[in-house]
Amino acid sequence: MSLVHETHPIDSGYLNGLLSEDTYWPIQPRDNHETGLSEAYIEGLILKIVASGGTLHGRAIAEASGLPFRLIEPVLDVQRTRKLIAHVRPAPFNDYYYSLTEAGQRRAQEQFRQCAYVGPAPVPLSDYVLSVEAQMAGLEPIDRDQLRRALSSISYQDELLDQLGPAINSNTGLFLFGPPGNGKTTIARCLTSCLGQEIWIPHAILDDGNLIKLKDDAFHRPAPVPEGGGRLLEMQEYDRRWARIQRPTVIVGGELTMNNLEVRHDARSNISEAPLQMKSNCGCLLIDDFGRQRVAPEELLNRWIVPLESRCDFLTLPTGKKIQIPFEQLIIFSTNLNPDSLVDEAFLRRVPYKILVGDPTAAEYARLMAEMAESLGFPPAPEAADYLLARYKHEKRGLRRCHPRDLLTQVRNFCIYRKTRLQLRPEYLDQAWRSYFSQL
User: Fold this and answer.
1) At 364, is the pLDDT very low, low, confident or very high (cuts 50, 70, 90)?
2) Which is it for the CA torsion 159, 164, 169, 172, positive or negative?
3) Tell me, which fold does domain 38-120 have in CATH?
4) Contact, 99 vs 86, CB < 8 A?
5) Cα-Cα end-to-end distance for the chain
6) Which helix (H) or strand (E) holds 212?
């Protein structure tokens, strides 16, 4: 099992704001025992890496495996003695280029049949559990100023802050509901930034011979590094089996199925994929357009009743073994429907915050119009907002925060098509209105 420090284990001179908020740091293993992996597993992974890469020098093999060169080098020596690999030519820094022998190629194919995974070596499940607990325990409650900064790029009504703040600090779950087009999804995306610093996640996890891929480029974005910080990070000793990412925001919509919430196993490659709740640990899981999934809301919510209360989830591995993982994320259900019409009282009690994201006021709508007009290159035309607001009132149509952007974009496209200068003339606004609202 690898060693892990939970509080500021690295030199304070390096921190200086770059990593000063770290509550977890994956320490580089000093020997094979500290990797939590058997020697046979490491040997098999090396053979697959060389088989996939062709001729590689030792340090490249170490980099691909995420393990220190000082641990890889003795394994390479043993495999060379067994005539599984051979020296091809010298490499810089007292290293060699290696390639597989015929016997090594046969052994590598056997390893591929057992598990086709090639990449950074996995970490034990216990190390992953410890990392989630440590990185969630390090969170501090947010305040109104932090929340305001997180939402600075979007428009909202001020009273929303006092509803969202306590919900985030509860780290349980919340419903964002209300008419479409008012920014529920955008608000949910912004909330993760309130959770603070970046986190560490392993590329893959191993438990009882079952390999689970965790890192997903669709959801896990590399942590931004200040100028000069990239080189400093390379110089630090840390376990390369882990990746430093921004706190994740996992967003799923109508495509969500129950299968996405369980460990998905590919029998052909013998590689399993982590469920969404694992990929969103220490971050945010947003269920967008809740109620429009291909599964019934009751079935989906019943799956999460226990995890929401106990803060842990139970998953079944391909071998039938049950494992317990942390359920530590802010889970947000975004819906255009009233939560009371979707779920029963038992579930509503476990998601204690229900926050209405209502329509903008006329003043907010006019401000959004002015901001969008400026960003699209229109000359100032405050009368355009009054003209549109009168149409809303006449047709008894609800205001939406997305409308200024959508309508003005259509006006801009119309002006470009007609080869006229950008203007917010009434007839142009009428043209956009008819196209946007599908009027007969």
Assistant:
1) very high
2) positive
3) Arc Repressor Mutant, subunit A (1.10.10)
4) yes
5) 68
6) strand 210-213
* Cα 391 from chain centre: 41
CATH number of the domain at 124-356, please?
A: 3.40.50.300
Task: Decide: residue 403, CB within 10 A, 0-12 exposed, 13-18 middle, 19+ buried.
Answer: buried
Residue 387, amino acid: Y
> Please, what is the average pLDDT of the chain?
87
From its phi and psi, is residue 54 left (phi > 0), alpha (psi between -120 and 50) or beta? Answer: left
Q: What angle do CA 165, 168, 169 make, to 5 degrees?
A: 85
- Which of 324, 34, 303, 357 is CA-nearest to residue 187? 357
Kindly state the helix (H) or strand (E) to which residue 389 belongs, with its residue range.
Answer: helix 382-395
207 vs 347, residue with greater confidence: 207
Q: For helices 160-170 and 184-191, give the axis angle rounded to 10 degrees.
A: 50
> How large is the average pLDDT for residues 289-312?
81
pTM: 0.83
Supply the angle between the helices 426-436 and 403-418 in degrees, to the nearest 10. Answer: 120
What average pLDDT does this structure show over 188-201? 80
pLDDT above 50 for 9: no
Q: 196's torsion region: left (phi>0), alpha (psi -120 to 50) or beta?
A: left
Q: Strand 210-213 relative to strand 271-273: parallel, antiparallel, unpaired?
A: parallel
Q: Count of residues for the chain?
A: 440
The structure tokens listed for 71 are 């641990």
